[in-house]
Amino acid sequence: MEKQRHIVMVHGASHGAWCWYKVAALLKSSGHKVTALDLAACGVNPEQVHQLKSISDYSEPLMDFMMSLPSEERVILVAHSFGGLVVSFAMERFPDKVSAGVFATAMMPGPDLSYKTLIEEYNRRIRIDEPDNPSTSQLFGPKSLSTYLYQLSPPEDLMLGMMLRRPHPLFSNDAIEREAVFSRNRYGAVPRIYIVCGQDNMVNQDLQRWVIRTNPPDEVKVIPDSDHMVMFSKPQELCSCLEEIAKKYA
């Protein structure tokens, strides 16, 4: 009997564990153990965005989960979008508990790619039609969701996103940069796989390829016809990628 792998999924900005419902069901039906987490002030997590003072506060649910794992258990961490930063923190802090880090059109800083450089490149290349608002949080509007994130996803999943999204906390880039320190002997010891989403209107393929060139992962997989919300637009293809990764690295 094939051993059971534990796959832990981390959502992106304004989303929650709920966004993984299709992929989680597929992976569970194939015999995998699946955990989808809500980060702080996301999904059904009871904290409110104004209570979060740092990126560590936002990331705390994943760190608490990693600390709770039995010492001998290792997991595959799967990040979507902004969740890549949180998964990178977990890889640096718990390298012995992570079999692989998977970055699906996700932020992927590292020893040779600082968060500051990464976010500057994101800000230079990403243009979203949202009002200029220097507040402490942001929320994607319906037009941005339908145009940039969900344009190839089923309409019912777009509606779900509109109903369940929550404000995303905004921390200063300098504050995040001070915490986002990644070493070769810890973060760098964990295999990384990047999944390119070919029709992503939010983080376009050129930007994804720039991240890959600047901080090369161990492996690159491509889902050509996926929008930004790969778990909605191409759940079967994402599931297949994750099963291949689980078999190879876990």
Automatic annotation (TrEMBL):
Q: Which InterPro entries match?
A: AB_hydrolase_1, AB_hydrolase_fold, MES/HNL
Q: Does the keyword Lyase apply?
A: yes
Q: Which EC number applies?
A: 4.1.2.47
Give a GO molecular function annotation for the protein.
aliphatic (S)-hydroxynitrile lyase activity
Key word DNA-binding present in the record?
no
Q: Do you know which Pfam families this protein is assigned to? A: Abhydrolase_6
Question: Which chain positions lie within coiled-coil regions?
Answer: none
What SUPFAM superfamilies would the database entry show?
A: alpha/beta-Hydrolases
Q: Which GO terms describe its biological process?
A: jasmonic acid metabolic process; salicylic acid metabolic process
* AB hydrolase-1 domain sequence ranges: 7-238
Class of this enzyme: lyase
Domain of life (superkingdom): Eukaryota
- UniProt keyword annotations, A-Z: Hydrolase, Lyase
Catalytic activity reads:
3-formylthiophene + hydrogen cyanide = (2S)-2-hydroxy-2-(thiophen-3-yl)acetonitrile; a disubstituted aliphatic (S)-hydroxynitrile = a ketone + hydrogen cyanide; 2,2-dimethylpropanal + hydrogen cyanide = (2S)-2-hydroxy-3,3-dimethylbutanenitrile; formylthiophene + hydrogen cyanide = (2R)-2-hydroxy-2-(thiophen-2-yl)acetonitrile
Task: Check the record and name the PANTHER family matching this protein.
Answer: AB HYDROLASE-1 DOMAIN-CONTAINING PROTEIN, METHYLESTERASE FAMILY MEMBER
Q: Name the protein family.
A: Belongs to the AB hydrolase superfamily. Hydroxynitrile lyase family.
Q: What is this protein called?
A: (S)-hydroxynitrile lyase
Annotated source species: Ricinus communis
